[in-house]
Amino acid sequence: MTIPAVKVSDISKNYGSLKALSHVDFSIDKGSFFGLLGPNGAGKSTLINIMAGLTHASDGNIDVMGNDVRRKWRKARNALGVVPQELAYDPFFSARQMLRLQSGYFGLGSGNYPWIDELLERLDLGGKADENMMKLSGGMKRRVLIAQALVHKPSVVVLDEPTAGVDVQLRKVLWEFTRELHGDGHTILLTTHYLEEAEALCEKIAILDHGKLIANETTKSLLSRYPYSYLHLELKDSSSALPEKIRDMAVSFKGRNVTLRLHREKDRIGNILEALYAAKVSFSDLRTEVPGLEEIFISLTGENND
Amino acid sequence: MINLRGMYTLFSKEVWRFLKVAIQTIVTPVITILLYLLVFASVLSEHVEIYDGVGYTLFLVPGLVMMSVIQNAFANNSSSLFQSKLNGNIVFMLLAPLSNLEVFIAYTCAAIVRGVLVGISAFLICVFFITPDIYNIWILLFFAFIGSGVLGSLGLLSAIWADKWDHIAAFQNFVVLPLAFLSGSFYSIKSLPGFWQKVSMLNPLFYMIDGFRYGFLGVSDHAVMVSAVIVSAFFILVSTLTLVTLQKGCKLRY
Ligand SMILES: Nc1ncnc2c1ncn2[C@@H]1O[C@H](COP(=O)(O)OP(=O)(O)O)[C@@H](O)[C@H]1O
Ligand SMILES: [Mg+2]
Q1: Domain termination site, one of A203, A223, A243
Q2: Is B205 in contact with B180 (CB distance < 8 Å)?
Q3: In this structure, are A210 and A240 located in the same domain?
Q4: A53: left (phi over 0), alpha (psi -120 to 50) or beta
Q5: What letters, b where the CB count within 10 A reaches 16 and e where it falls short, cover A81-118?
Q6: Which residue has the higher pLDDT, A163 or A204?
Q7: Looking at residue A155, which CATH number applies to its domain?
Q8: Do B94 and A73 touch (CB under 8 A)?
Q9: Looking at the structure, do residues A142 and A267 belong to the same domain, yes or no?
Q10: What span, in angstroms and rounded, lies between the C-alpha atoms of A79 and A152?
Protein backbone atom coordinates (compact mmCIF):
# COMPACT_ATOMS: atom_id res chain seq x y z
CA MET A 1 0.00 0.00 0.00
CA THR A 2 1.50 3.34 -0.96
CA ILE A 3 1.18 6.26 1.39
CA PRO A 4 -1.05 9.12 0.24
CA ALA A 5 0.49 12.47 -0.71
CA VAL A 6 -1.65 14.19 1.90
CA LYS A 7 -3.49 12.52 4.72
CA VAL A 8 -5.87 14.65 6.73
CA SER A 9 -6.82 12.77 9.88
CA ASP A 10 -9.74 13.94 11.97
CA ILE A 11 -8.76 17.61 11.88
CA SER A 12 -10.65 20.11 14.00
CA LYS A 13 -9.88 23.78 14.44
CA ASN A 14 -11.63 26.19 16.75
CA TYR A 15 -11.23 29.95 16.77
CA GLY A 16 -12.74 30.69 20.16
CA SER A 17 -16.27 29.36 19.90
CA LEU A 18 -16.18 29.22 16.10
CA LYS A 19 -15.67 25.72 14.75
CA ALA A 20 -13.76 26.51 11.57
CA LEU A 21 -13.16 22.80 10.93
CA SER A 22 -14.72 19.78 12.60
CA HIS A 23 -13.45 16.23 12.21
CA VAL A 24 -12.30 16.61 8.64
CA ASP A 25 -10.85 13.38 7.32
CA PHE A 26 -9.69 12.52 3.79
CA SER A 27 -6.60 11.75 1.82
CA ILE A 28 -5.13 12.76 -1.51
CA ASP A 29 -3.45 10.13 -3.68
CA LYS A 30 0.01 10.74 -5.01
CA GLY A 31 -0.03 12.25 -8.46
CA SER A 32 -3.69 13.20 -8.40
CA PHE A 33 -5.37 16.51 -9.17
CA PHE A 34 -7.58 17.16 -6.19
CA GLY A 35 -10.14 19.93 -5.77
CA LEU A 36 -11.24 21.35 -2.45
CA LEU A 37 -14.47 23.27 -2.83
CA GLY A 38 -16.74 25.12 -0.52
CA PRO A 39 -18.46 28.46 -0.09
CA ASN A 40 -16.59 31.37 1.45
CA GLY A 41 -15.76 30.75 5.08
CA ALA A 42 -16.10 26.98 4.72
CA GLY A 43 -12.62 26.46 6.14
CA LYS A 44 -10.57 25.74 3.01
CA SER A 45 -7.78 28.19 3.77
CA THR A 46 -7.73 27.15 7.40
CA LEU A 47 -7.15 23.56 6.34
CA ILE A 48 -4.35 24.60 4.00
CA ASN A 49 -2.78 26.74 6.69
CA ILE A 50 -2.72 23.77 9.04
CA MET A 51 -1.14 21.67 6.31
CA ALA A 52 1.53 24.33 5.78
CA GLY A 53 2.23 24.82 9.48
CA LEU A 54 0.93 28.41 9.42
CA THR A 55 -1.79 27.49 11.88
CA HIS A 56 -1.98 24.69 14.40
CA ALA A 57 -4.95 22.33 14.51
CA SER A 58 -6.98 22.08 17.71
CA ASP A 59 -7.18 18.35 17.16
CA GLY A 60 -6.11 15.70 14.66
CA ASN A 61 -3.08 15.68 12.41
CA ILE A 62 -2.00 16.00 8.80
CA ASP A 63 0.76 14.08 7.03
CA VAL A 64 2.40 15.37 3.86
CA MET A 65 4.20 12.60 1.97
CA GLY A 66 4.14 10.57 5.16
CA ASN A 67 5.52 13.36 7.37
CA ASP A 68 3.45 14.69 10.23
CA VAL A 69 3.35 18.46 9.77
CA ARG A 70 4.01 19.07 13.47
CA ARG A 71 6.54 16.39 14.37
CA LYS A 72 8.39 16.12 11.05
CA TRP A 73 7.79 19.70 10.02
CA ARG A 74 11.05 20.13 8.14
CA LYS A 75 10.39 17.20 5.79
CA ALA A 76 6.73 18.10 5.49
CA ARG A 77 7.52 21.69 4.47
CA ASN A 78 10.13 20.51 1.99
CA ALA A 79 7.50 18.33 0.33
CA LEU A 80 4.93 21.12 0.14
CA GLY A 81 4.66 24.20 -2.08
CA VAL A 82 1.90 26.58 -1.11
CA VAL A 83 0.46 29.44 -3.14
CA PRO A 84 -1.35 31.48 -0.49
CA GLN A 85 -4.72 33.06 -1.18
CA GLU A 86 -3.58 36.56 -0.19
CA LEU A 87 -1.37 38.39 -2.66
CA ALA A 88 1.80 38.86 -0.57
CA TYR A 89 5.15 40.22 -1.75
CA ASP A 90 8.21 41.91 -0.34
CA PRO A 91 8.39 45.52 -1.56
CA PHE A 92 12.16 45.59 -1.11
CA PHE A 93 12.98 43.07 -3.81
CA SER A 94 12.51 42.03 -7.43
CA ALA A 95 10.85 38.81 -8.53
CA ARG A 96 14.18 37.12 -9.19
CA GLN A 97 15.54 38.21 -5.82
CA MET A 98 12.41 36.95 -4.05
CA LEU A 99 12.75 33.57 -5.76
CA ARG A 100 16.43 33.29 -4.91
CA LEU A 101 15.77 34.18 -1.30
CA GLN A 102 12.96 31.65 -1.07
CA SER A 103 15.19 29.01 -2.62
CA GLY A 104 17.85 29.88 -0.03
CA TYR A 105 15.37 29.46 2.83
CA PHE A 106 14.91 25.91 1.57
CA GLY A 107 18.65 25.37 1.84
CA LEU A 108 19.31 25.56 -1.91
CA GLY A 109 22.24 27.48 -3.34
CA SER A 110 23.18 28.91 -6.71
CA GLY A 111 22.84 25.41 -8.19
CA ASN A 112 19.11 26.10 -8.16
CA TYR A 113 19.34 29.34 -10.15
CA PRO A 114 18.77 27.67 -13.55
CA TRP A 115 15.49 26.26 -12.21
CA ILE A 116 14.51 29.73 -11.04
CA ASP A 117 15.22 31.10 -14.50
CA GLU A 118 13.12 28.34 -16.00
CA LEU A 119 10.23 29.14 -13.66
CA LEU A 120 10.44 32.82 -14.59
CA GLU A 121 10.38 31.80 -18.23
CA ARG A 122 7.51 29.35 -17.95
CA LEU A 123 5.38 31.82 -16.03
CA ASP A 124 6.11 34.52 -18.57
CA LEU A 125 7.92 36.70 -16.05
CA GLY A 126 11.18 36.92 -17.95
CA GLY A 127 10.84 40.57 -18.91
CA LYS A 128 9.80 41.70 -15.44
CA ALA A 129 12.13 39.50 -13.39
CA ASP A 130 14.42 42.31 -12.29
CA GLU A 131 11.82 44.99 -11.66
CA ASN A 132 10.88 45.81 -8.10
CA MET A 133 7.82 43.81 -7.03
CA MET A 134 5.91 47.02 -6.37
CA LYS A 135 5.95 47.82 -10.08
CA LEU A 136 4.30 44.55 -11.08
CA SER A 137 0.59 44.23 -11.82
CA GLY A 138 -1.63 42.05 -9.64
CA GLY A 139 -1.57 39.25 -12.19
CA MET A 140 2.23 39.36 -12.36
CA LYS A 141 2.48 39.28 -8.58
CA ARG A 142 0.21 36.23 -8.60
CA ARG A 143 2.60 34.50 -11.02
CA VAL A 144 5.58 35.30 -8.81
CA LEU A 145 3.68 33.81 -5.88
CA ILE A 146 3.21 30.62 -7.87
CA ALA A 147 6.87 30.50 -8.89
CA GLN A 148 7.84 30.99 -5.25
CA ALA A 149 5.84 27.94 -4.23
CA LEU A 150 7.76 25.87 -6.77
CA VAL A 151 11.38 26.94 -6.13
CA HIS A 152 12.16 23.82 -4.12
CA LYS A 153 10.37 21.44 -6.52
CA PRO A 154 7.84 20.22 -3.97
CA SER A 155 6.00 16.96 -4.61
CA VAL A 156 2.71 18.46 -3.46
CA VAL A 157 1.57 21.82 -4.80
CA VAL A 158 -1.27 23.62 -3.06
CA LEU A 159 -3.03 26.50 -4.76
CA ASP A 160 -5.48 28.44 -2.62
CA GLU A 161 -7.95 30.15 -4.95
CA PRO A 162 -5.28 31.07 -7.49
CA THR A 163 -7.79 32.32 -10.03
CA ALA A 164 -9.93 34.45 -7.73
CA GLY A 165 -10.12 37.93 -9.17
CA VAL A 166 -7.76 37.31 -12.11
CA ASP A 167 -8.70 38.10 -15.70
CA VAL A 168 -9.85 35.45 -18.14
CA GLN A 169 -6.56 35.36 -19.98
CA LEU A 170 -4.46 34.75 -16.87
CA ARG A 171 -6.96 32.15 -15.72
CA LYS A 172 -6.37 30.23 -18.95
CA VAL A 173 -2.60 30.48 -18.46
CA LEU A 174 -2.89 29.24 -14.89
CA TRP A 175 -5.11 26.33 -15.91
CA GLU A 176 -2.57 25.34 -18.52
CA PHE A 177 0.30 25.68 -16.08
CA THR A 178 -1.34 23.60 -13.34
CA ARG A 179 -2.13 20.92 -15.94
CA GLU A 180 1.55 20.89 -16.91
CA LEU A 181 2.60 20.62 -13.27
CA HIS A 182 0.22 17.72 -12.85
CA GLY A 183 1.64 16.17 -16.00
CA ASP A 184 5.14 16.47 -14.53
CA GLY A 185 4.04 14.25 -11.66
CA HIS A 186 3.17 16.79 -8.98
CA THR A 187 0.22 16.15 -6.74
CA ILE A 188 -2.06 19.17 -7.00
CA LEU A 189 -4.48 20.46 -4.41
CA LEU A 190 -6.59 23.29 -5.75
CA THR A 191 -9.19 25.28 -3.89
CA THR A 192 -11.54 27.37 -5.92
CA HIS A 193 -15.02 28.69 -5.91
CA TYR A 194 -15.27 28.52 -9.68
CA LEU A 195 -17.02 25.20 -10.10
CA GLU A 196 -16.41 24.96 -13.80
CA GLU A 197 -12.72 25.20 -12.97
CA ALA A 198 -12.86 22.24 -10.60
CA GLU A 199 -14.95 20.32 -13.12
CA ALA A 200 -12.43 20.97 -15.87
CA LEU A 201 -9.27 20.24 -13.89
CA CYS A 202 -9.87 17.98 -10.90
CA GLU A 203 -10.08 14.20 -10.87
CA LYS A 204 -11.37 14.11 -7.33
CA ILE A 205 -13.30 16.64 -5.35
CA ALA A 206 -13.95 17.20 -1.67
CA ILE A 207 -16.54 19.71 -0.55
CA LEU A 208 -16.33 21.57 2.74
CA ASP A 209 -19.28 23.38 4.21
CA HIS A 210 -19.21 25.15 7.56
CA GLY A 211 -16.08 23.24 8.47
CA LYS A 212 -17.54 19.82 7.69
CA LEU A 213 -16.66 17.51 4.84
CA ILE A 214 -19.88 16.84 2.93
CA ALA A 215 -18.51 15.13 -0.16
CA ASN A 216 -15.31 13.38 -1.19
CA GLU A 217 -15.38 11.41 -4.42
CA THR A 218 -14.32 11.39 -8.04
CA THR A 219 -15.57 14.28 -10.14
CA LYS A 220 -17.39 11.80 -12.35
CA SER A 221 -19.30 10.14 -9.56
CA LEU A 222 -20.08 13.50 -8.01
CA LEU A 223 -21.55 14.68 -11.29
CA SER A 224 -23.59 11.52 -11.65
CA ARG A 225 -25.17 12.19 -8.28
CA TYR A 226 -27.48 14.50 -10.14
CA PRO A 227 -28.81 12.27 -12.86
CA TYR A 228 -30.96 14.78 -14.73
CA SER A 229 -30.42 16.83 -17.81
CA TYR A 230 -32.78 19.35 -19.40
CA LEU A 231 -34.30 19.68 -22.86
CA HIS A 232 -35.59 23.11 -23.81
CA LEU A 233 -38.07 23.21 -26.70
CA GLU A 234 -39.52 26.14 -28.53
CA LEU A 235 -42.82 25.00 -30.03
CA LYS A 236 -44.16 26.41 -33.27
CA ASP A 237 -47.64 26.59 -31.87
CA SER A 238 -48.42 27.11 -28.20
CA SER A 239 -51.71 25.29 -28.49
CA SER A 240 -50.23 22.05 -29.71
CA ALA A 241 -51.06 19.19 -27.44
CA LEU A 242 -48.09 17.37 -26.01
CA PRO A 243 -48.41 13.63 -25.60
CA GLU A 244 -49.13 12.73 -22.00
CA LYS A 245 -45.88 10.83 -21.55
CA ILE A 246 -43.97 13.97 -22.46
CA ARG A 247 -46.20 16.33 -20.52
CA ASP A 248 -45.21 14.40 -17.37
CA MET A 249 -41.58 15.29 -17.97
CA ALA A 250 -42.18 18.98 -18.29
CA VAL A 251 -40.91 21.13 -15.48
CA SER A 252 -41.92 24.47 -16.95
CA PHE A 253 -44.19 26.01 -19.58
CA LYS A 254 -43.61 29.57 -20.63
CA GLY A 255 -45.74 30.36 -23.66
CA ARG A 256 -44.26 28.33 -26.47
CA ASN A 257 -41.19 27.40 -24.38
CA VAL A 258 -41.23 24.07 -22.64
CA THR A 259 -38.52 22.58 -20.48
CA LEU A 260 -38.38 18.83 -20.00
CA ARG A 261 -36.35 17.09 -17.32
CA LEU A 262 -34.73 13.89 -18.52
CA HIS A 263 -33.17 11.14 -16.51
CA ARG A 264 -29.70 10.53 -17.94
CA GLU A 265 -30.08 6.78 -18.05
CA LYS A 266 -33.80 6.21 -18.53
CA ASP A 267 -34.82 8.88 -21.01
CA ARG A 268 -33.43 9.06 -24.53
CA ILE A 269 -33.77 12.24 -26.54
CA GLY A 270 -34.35 10.14 -29.67
CA ASN A 271 -37.47 8.56 -28.16
CA ILE A 272 -38.82 11.94 -27.17
CA LEU A 273 -38.35 13.38 -30.65
CA GLU A 274 -40.09 10.36 -32.16
CA ALA A 275 -43.00 10.75 -29.78
CA LEU A 276 -43.31 14.45 -30.68
CA TYR A 277 -43.19 13.61 -34.36
CA ALA A 278 -45.86 10.97 -33.96
CA ALA A 279 -48.08 13.47 -32.14
CA LYS A 280 -47.44 16.00 -34.94
CA VAL A 281 -45.99 18.55 -32.58
CA SER A 282 -43.48 20.69 -34.43
CA PHE A 283 -40.90 22.92 -32.87
CA SER A 284 -38.63 25.65 -34.10
CA ASP A 285 -35.74 25.25 -31.69
CA LEU A 286 -34.24 22.73 -29.33
CA ARG A 287 -31.50 22.98 -26.74
CA THR A 288 -30.14 20.57 -24.15
CA GLU A 289 -28.54 21.47 -20.86
CA VAL A 290 -26.38 19.20 -18.70
CA PRO A 291 -26.15 20.48 -15.17
CA GLY A 292 -22.66 20.77 -13.69
CA LEU A 293 -21.24 21.00 -10.24
CA GLU A 294 -23.24 24.14 -9.64
CA GLU A 295 -26.48 22.21 -9.17
CA ILE A 296 -24.82 19.53 -7.10
CA PHE A 297 -23.14 22.13 -5.00
CA ILE A 298 -26.39 23.92 -4.33
CA SER A 299 -28.19 20.71 -3.55
CA LEU A 300 -25.44 19.74 -1.09
CA THR A 301 -24.74 23.05 0.63
CA GLY A 302 -28.07 24.74 0.10
CA GLU A 303 -26.15 27.80 -1.05
CA ASN A 304 -25.76 29.58 -4.29
CA ASN A 305 -22.10 30.06 -4.85
CA ASP A 306 -22.11 33.21 -6.91
CA MET B 1 19.99 18.80 11.43
CA ILE B 2 20.25 22.51 10.95
CA ASN B 3 19.30 24.55 7.90
CA LEU B 4 22.50 26.62 7.82
CA ARG B 5 21.97 28.00 4.36
CA GLY B 6 18.38 28.88 5.12
CA MET B 7 19.43 30.73 8.25
CA TYR B 8 22.21 32.52 6.40
CA THR B 9 19.81 33.52 3.60
CA LEU B 10 17.36 35.01 6.07
CA PHE B 11 20.19 36.86 7.81
CA SER B 12 21.53 38.27 4.55
CA LYS B 13 18.05 39.25 3.42
CA GLU B 14 17.67 41.26 6.62
CA VAL B 15 21.04 42.97 6.17
CA TRP B 16 20.32 43.60 2.50
CA ARG B 17 16.97 45.11 3.44
CA PHE B 18 18.37 47.73 5.80
CA LEU B 19 21.28 48.53 3.48
CA LYS B 20 18.77 49.28 0.72
CA VAL B 21 17.45 52.09 2.91
CA ALA B 22 20.80 53.05 4.42
CA ILE B 23 19.92 56.75 4.51
CA GLN B 24 17.22 55.96 6.99
CA THR B 25 18.92 53.11 8.83
CA ILE B 26 22.54 54.28 9.06
CA VAL B 27 22.93 57.91 8.04
CA THR B 28 20.01 59.35 10.03
CA PRO B 29 21.08 57.84 13.36
CA VAL B 30 24.63 59.05 12.81
CA ILE B 31 23.39 62.59 12.16
CA THR B 32 21.36 62.40 15.35
CA ILE B 33 24.48 61.56 17.31
CA LEU B 34 26.34 64.38 15.65
CA LEU B 35 23.64 66.83 16.75
CA TYR B 36 23.75 65.57 20.32
CA LEU B 37 27.49 65.93 20.34
CA LEU B 38 27.41 69.46 18.98
CA VAL B 39 24.81 70.57 21.48
CA PHE B 40 25.96 68.84 24.64
CA ALA B 41 29.68 68.86 24.10
CA SER B 42 29.94 72.46 23.08
CA VAL B 43 27.77 73.63 25.96
CA LEU B 44 29.18 71.45 28.69
CA SER B 45 32.70 70.44 27.81
CA GLU B 46 34.29 73.45 29.54
CA HIS B 47 32.49 72.88 32.76
CA VAL B 48 32.42 69.24 33.70
CA GLU B 49 35.03 66.64 34.36
CA ILE B 50 33.40 63.27 34.98
CA TYR B 51 36.29 61.08 35.99
CA ASP B 52 39.84 62.24 36.71
CA GLY B 53 41.24 63.40 33.40
CA VAL B 54 38.09 62.51 31.47
CA GLY B 55 36.35 65.56 30.10
CA TYR B 56 32.66 65.63 29.28
CA THR B 57 33.03 65.15 25.53
CA LEU B 58 35.19 62.08 26.02
CA PHE B 59 32.68 60.73 28.52
CA LEU B 60 29.76 61.49 26.24
CA VAL B 61 31.03 59.85 23.06
CA PRO B 62 30.90 56.17 24.14
CA GLY B 63 27.53 56.75 25.82
CA LEU B 64 26.06 58.30 22.69
CA VAL B 65 27.54 55.67 20.40
CA MET B 66 26.26 52.76 22.50
CA MET B 67 22.84 54.33 22.92
CA SER B 68 22.58 54.56 19.17
CA VAL B 69 23.87 51.00 18.69
CA ILE B 70 21.18 49.48 20.86
CA GLN B 71 18.35 51.71 19.65
CA ASN B 72 19.10 50.76 16.08
CA ALA B 73 19.33 47.07 16.88
CA PHE B 74 15.85 47.32 18.37
CA ALA B 75 14.47 49.37 15.50
CA ASN B 76 15.84 46.96 12.92
CA ASN B 77 14.06 43.88 14.13
CA SER B 78 10.89 45.50 15.34
CA SER B 79 10.25 47.35 12.10
CA SER B 80 11.37 44.59 9.75
CA LEU B 81 9.39 41.77 11.32
CA PHE B 82 6.34 43.92 11.92
CA GLN B 83 6.36 45.18 8.35
CA SER B 84 6.49 41.57 7.12
CA LYS B 85 3.56 40.76 9.36
CA LEU B 86 1.54 43.69 8.01
CA ASN B 87 2.41 43.04 4.36
CA GLY B 88 1.73 39.36 4.78
CA ASN B 89 5.09 38.44 3.28
CA ILE B 90 6.01 36.82 6.57
CA VAL B 91 4.39 33.67 5.14
CA PHE B 92 7.44 33.09 2.95
CA MET B 93 9.59 32.62 6.02
CA LEU B 94 6.91 30.66 7.85
CA LEU B 95 6.41 28.25 4.92
CA ALA B 96 10.13 27.50 4.74
CA PRO B 97 11.85 24.74 6.70
CA LEU B 98 13.38 27.17 9.21
CA SER B 99 13.28 26.41 12.93
CA ASN B 100 12.43 29.05 15.49
CA LEU B 101 16.03 29.03 16.66
CA GLU B 102 17.25 29.60 13.10
CA VAL B 103 14.83 32.49 12.64
CA PHE B 104 15.89 33.93 15.97
CA ILE B 105 19.60 33.70 15.19
CA ALA B 106 19.18 35.17 11.69
CA TYR B 107 17.22 38.20 12.91
CA THR B 108 19.38 38.76 15.99
CA CYS B 109 22.59 38.67 13.96
CA ALA B 110 21.13 41.14 11.46
CA ALA B 111 20.22 43.47 14.34
CA ILE B 112 23.78 43.18 15.68
CA VAL B 113 25.20 44.03 12.26
CA ARG B 114 22.95 47.06 12.00
CA GLY B 115 23.86 48.19 15.54
CA VAL B 116 27.56 47.72 15.02
CA LEU B 117 27.53 49.44 11.60
CA VAL B 118 25.78 52.45 13.11
CA GLY B 119 28.27 52.34 15.98
CA ILE B 120 31.28 52.32 13.67
CA SER B 121 29.92 55.14 11.52
CA ALA B 122 29.10 57.18 14.62
CA PHE B 123 32.57 56.57 15.96
CA LEU B 124 34.13 57.80 12.74
CA ILE B 125 32.19 61.05 13.11
CA CYS B 126 33.23 61.42 16.73
CA VAL B 127 36.86 61.25 15.75
CA PHE B 128 36.47 64.90 14.73
CA PHE B 129 35.74 65.78 18.34
CA ILE B 130 38.01 63.55 20.38
CA THR B 131 41.26 61.64 20.02
CA PRO B 132 40.27 58.04 19.59
CA ASP B 133 42.18 56.11 22.19
CA ILE B 134 40.36 52.89 22.81
CA TYR B 135 41.25 51.21 26.08
CA ASN B 136 40.18 47.66 25.13
CA ILE B 137 38.51 46.92 21.83
CA TRP B 138 37.37 43.41 22.88
CA ILE B 139 35.48 44.63 25.89
CA LEU B 140 33.97 47.34 23.74
CA LEU B 141 32.88 44.87 21.06
CA PHE B 142 31.56 42.42 23.63
CA PHE B 143 29.16 45.02 25.01
CA ALA B 144 28.23 46.29 21.54
CA PHE B 145 27.38 42.77 20.36
CA ILE B 146 25.53 41.61 23.41
CA GLY B 147 23.73 44.93 23.81
CA SER B 148 22.51 44.77 20.19
CA GLY B 149 21.60 41.14 20.74
CA VAL B 150 19.38 41.98 23.71
CA LEU B 151 17.68 44.89 21.98
CA GLY B 152 17.35 42.98 18.70
CA SER B 153 15.64 40.22 20.60
CA LEU B 154 13.33 42.72 22.30
CA GLY B 155 12.60 44.10 18.84
CA LEU B 156 11.45 40.67 17.71
CA LEU B 157 9.27 40.28 20.79
CA SER B 158 7.57 43.62 20.29
CA ALA B 159 6.98 42.90 16.58
CA ILE B 160 5.44 39.53 17.38
CA TRP B 161 3.04 41.00 19.91
CA ALA B 162 2.18 44.24 18.12
CA ASP B 163 -1.05 44.56 16.16
CA LYS B 164 -0.33 48.05 14.86
CA TRP B 165 2.58 50.46 14.44
CA ASP B 166 1.41 52.33 17.54
CA HIS B 167 2.34 49.34 19.67
CA ILE B 168 5.88 49.31 18.33
CA ALA B 169 6.18 53.06 18.74
CA ALA B 170 4.84 52.84 22.29
CA PHE B 171 7.41 50.20 23.22
CA GLN B 172 10.14 52.26 21.64
CA ASN B 173 9.11 55.58 23.17
CA PHE B 174 7.96 54.47 26.59
CA VAL B 175 10.40 51.65 27.29
CA VAL B 176 13.52 51.68 25.12
CA LEU B 177 14.04 55.42 24.88
CA PRO B 178 13.60 56.28 28.60
CA LEU B 179 15.77 53.33 29.63
CA ALA B 180 18.43 54.46 27.16
CA PHE B 181 18.30 58.08 28.32
CA LEU B 182 18.29 57.16 32.00
CA SER B 183 21.15 54.73 31.66
CA GLY B 184 23.97 57.18 32.21
CA SER B 185 24.62 57.93 28.56
CA PHE B 186 24.76 61.67 29.25
CA TYR B 187 25.96 61.66 32.86
CA SER B 188 27.63 59.49 35.44
CA ILE B 189 25.02 57.99 37.72
CA LYS B 190 27.44 58.79 40.55
CA SER B 191 26.24 62.36 40.14
CA LEU B 192 22.68 61.35 40.98
CA PRO B 193 21.14 61.39 44.49
CA GLY B 194 21.41 58.01 46.26
CA PHE B 195 17.83 56.93 45.55
CA TRP B 196 18.09 57.56 41.82
CA GLN B 197 21.43 55.81 41.73
CA LYS B 198 19.72 52.70 43.09
CA VAL B 199 16.91 53.01 40.54
CA SER B 200 19.46 53.35 37.74
CA MET B 201 21.11 50.13 38.86
CA LEU B 202 17.87 48.28 38.01
CA ASN B 203 18.15 49.40 34.41
CA PRO B 204 19.83 46.70 32.32
CA LEU B 205 20.77 49.29 29.68
CA PHE B 206 22.90 51.05 32.29
CA TYR B 207 25.25 48.04 32.43
CA MET B 208 25.50 47.87 28.64
CA ILE B 209 26.49 51.51 28.37
CA ASP B 210 28.71 51.46 31.42
CA GLY B 211 30.56 48.35 30.21
CA PHE B 212 30.89 49.79 26.72
CA ARG B 213 32.31 52.98 28.17
CA TYR B 214 34.79 50.94 30.16
CA GLY B 215 36.01 49.31 26.94
CA PHE B 216 36.44 52.80 25.56
CA LEU B 217 37.93 54.71 28.47
CA GLY B 218 39.08 52.10 30.97
CA VAL B 219 36.93 53.73 33.68
CA SER B 220 33.29 53.18 34.55
CA ASP B 221 30.70 53.60 37.27
CA HIS B 222 30.46 49.89 37.93
CA ALA B 223 32.92 46.98 37.96
CA VAL B 224 33.09 45.80 34.35
CA MET B 225 32.95 42.10 35.18
CA VAL B 226 29.73 42.59 37.09
CA SER B 227 28.27 44.51 34.13
CA ALA B 228 29.34 41.72 31.77
CA VAL B 229 27.65 39.07 33.91
CA ILE B 230 24.46 41.08 34.33
CA VAL B 231 24.21 41.91 30.63
CA SER B 232 24.86 38.27 29.67
CA ALA B 233 22.23 37.07 32.09
CA PHE B 234 19.81 39.56 30.63
CA PHE B 235 20.64 38.39 27.12
CA ILE B 236 19.88 34.80 28.11
CA LEU B 237 16.63 35.85 29.75
CA VAL B 238 15.38 37.89 26.79
CA SER B 239 16.48 35.30 24.22
CA THR B 240 14.72 32.54 26.11
CA LEU B 241 11.58 34.62 26.31
CA THR B 242 11.72 35.31 22.56
CA LEU B 243 12.33 31.66 21.71
CA VAL B 244 9.48 30.50 23.92
CA THR B 245 7.23 33.07 22.27
CA LEU B 246 8.25 31.85 18.81
CA GLN B 247 7.81 28.24 19.90
CA LYS B 248 4.31 28.90 21.20
CA GLY B 249 3.55 30.55 17.89
CA CYS B 250 1.89 33.55 19.55
CA LYS B 251 0.41 35.74 16.82
CA LEU B 252 2.67 34.20 14.17
CA ARG B 253 1.47 30.62 13.95
CA TYR B 254 -1.81 30.56 15.82
N1 LIG C 1 -7.34 33.92 12.37
C2 LIG C 1 -8.65 33.71 12.50
N3 LIG C 1 -9.28 34.06 13.63
C4 LIG C 1 -10.60 33.85 13.78
N5 LIG C 1 -11.39 33.30 12.85
C6 LIG C 1 -10.83 32.93 11.70
C7 LIG C 1 -9.43 33.12 11.45
N8 LIG C 1 -9.15 32.65 10.21
C9 LIG C 1 -10.32 32.20 9.70
N10 LIG C 1 -11.33 32.37 10.58
C11 LIG C 1 -12.73 31.96 10.37
O12 LIG C 1 -12.73 30.58 10.04
C13 LIG C 1 -13.70 30.31 9.05
C14 LIG C 1 -13.05 29.66 7.86
O15 LIG C 1 -12.26 30.59 7.18
P16 LIG C 1 -11.40 30.21 5.90
O17 LIG C 1 -10.63 28.98 6.20
O18 LIG C 1 -10.63 31.42 5.52
O19 LIG C 1 -12.51 29.90 4.82
P20 LIG C 1 -12.40 29.74 3.23
O21 LIG C 1 -10.95 29.74 2.87
O22 LIG C 1 -13.07 28.44 2.96
O23 LIG C 1 -13.13 30.87 2.64
C24 LIG C 1 -14.35 31.64 8.71
O25 LIG C 1 -15.56 31.73 9.44
C26 LIG C 1 -13.36 32.65 9.18
O27 LIG C 1 -13.99 33.84 9.57
MG1 LIG D 1 -9.91 30.94 1.63
Answers
A1: A223
A2: yes
A3: no
A4: left
A5: bbbbbeebbbebbbbbbbbbbbbbbbbbeeebeebbee
A6: A204
A7: 3.40.50.300
A8: no
A9: no
A10: 8
CB B96 within 8 A of CB A77: yes
Among A73, A74, A88, beta carbon nearest to B89: A88
Nearest chain A residue to B10, by CA: A105
Per-residue pLDDT, A252: 84
Question: Residue A299 has what pLDDT?
Answer: 76
Cβ-Cβ contacts under 8 Å, A78 against chain B: 97
Residues A264 and A204 in one domain: no
pLDDT for residue A291 is more than 80: no
| Predicted confidence (pLDDT) at residue A88 exceeds the cutoff of 70 | yes
Assess whether pLDDT exceeds 60 at residue A305.
no
CB B168 within 8 A of CB B79: yes
- Separation CA A3–CA A64 (nearest Å): 10
Q: Minimal Cα distance from A134: which residue of B?
A: B87
CA distances from B229 to B7, B146, B214, B223 (A): 28, 11, 14, 10
User: Is there a contact between A101 and A110 (Cβ–Cβ < 8 Å)?
Assistant: no
Of the pLDDT bands very low, low, confident and very high (cuts 50, 70, 90), residue A224 is confident
Q: Tell me how far apart the alpha carbons of residues B183 and B196 are, in angstroms, rounded to a whole number.
A: 11
Which positions ≥6 away from B140 have C-beta within 8 Å?
Answer: B62, B134, B212, B215, B216
Reduced to 3 states (helix: H, G, I; strand: E, B; else coil), residue B178 is helix
Mutation for testing the A interface, residue in B89, B98, B250, B253 having most A CBs under 10 Å: B89
Specify the pTM: 0.89
Determine the structural domain holding residue A159 and report its residue range: 6-223
